[in-house]
Design goal:
Blueprint (H helix, E strand, L loop, with lengths): L2 E5 L6 H12 L2 E4 H10 L3 H11 L6 H15 L4 E4 L5 H14 L4 E7 L2 H10 E3 L6 E3 L28 H24 L3 E5 L4 H13 L4
Parallel strand pairs: 1-3, 1-4, 2-3, 4-7
Antiparallel strand pairs: 5-6
Helix pairs in contact: 2-3, 4-5, 6-7
Bound molecules: adenosine monophosphate (AMP).
Length: 219
């Protein structure tokens, strides 16, 4: 199966879709947002700096995220993997190209999850996440709500809201997506690697579409 690289505005469903492919198809999942939040949770000086950037809806530096991802990608390369949240700038996309060549990883599909601001914002404002296993829920969607109020179905941990899921920060994150991340779509389109998926569809339909994309061109 092909590796999946998600390009998406905030709250398009990258985390939920990734969880599904991890559970059902054995994908490895690398979420750069989770990587950064783990550093924040460690309370290091770097974590404090990262927290300041994330809670304002800005992007951490290309240099930092590229360093973190290159360390992690090395560990993932032998299984199908999902990149969730990377690349987010043109510089990151160009660097990723090099990393994949160096690692000899060639079966990839880039999926642009398209969702308008109002729907994405409603999702962000309903989102709660498990700080331990990172599973994401949505209290406004019965299919994505936890079985017990505010408790993770998988590990029993009390769920939390993300500090950047406020209306003000969400707007800023969406704007950052439009200015910094949208240019990547052209980059991948030029390489013939980009497929757009409507992320407002029913989840089952989205899973089905993505599954077929991961199998395309395979013997
Ligand atoms: P996410 O969990 O993907 O919504 O990411 C949460 C936040 O982490 C983003 O709003 C950024 O502040 C930061 N972040 C995640 N991935 C990247 C990246 N590839 N480049 C820069 N900042 C990132």
């Amino acid at each position: 199966m092909k590796n999946i690289i998600f390009i998406a505005p905030p709250s398009a469903g990258k985390g939920t879709i990734s969880d599904y492919f991890v559970k059902h198809y054995g994908y490895e999942h690398l979420s750069t947002g989770d990587l950064l939040r783990s550093e924040v949770a460690r309370g290091t000086n770097l974590g404090k700096e990262i927290n300041d950037i994330i809670s304002k809806g800005n992007l951490v530096s290309d240099e930092l995220i590229i360093r973190l991802v290159s360390q992690e990608l090395e560990k993932l390369k032998d299984k199908p993997f999902i990149l969730d949240g990377f690349p987010r700038t043109l510089a990151q996309a160009e660097e990723l190209d090099q990393m994949l060549v160096t690692l000899g990883v060639s079966h990839n599909v880039v999926i642009y999850l398209d969702v308008p601001l109002d729907i994405a914002m409603a999702r962000a404002l309903g989102r709660v996440v498990c700080p331990k296993c990172k599973r994401s829920y949505n209290i406004n969607n019965p299919k994505l709500s936890p079985q017990k109020n505010n408790i993770c179905d998988d590990c029993g941990t009390i769920l939390e809201r993300r500090s950047d899921d406020t209306e003000e920060t969400f707007r800023k994150r969406y704007e950052t997506f439009l200015t910094s991340t949208i240019p990547i779509t052209q980059f991948y389109q030029n390489k013939g690697m980009l497929v757009k998926v409507d992320a407002t569809d029913e989840l089952e339909l989205i899973y089905e579409k993505i599954l077929s994309l991961t199998k395309q061109d395979e013997a």
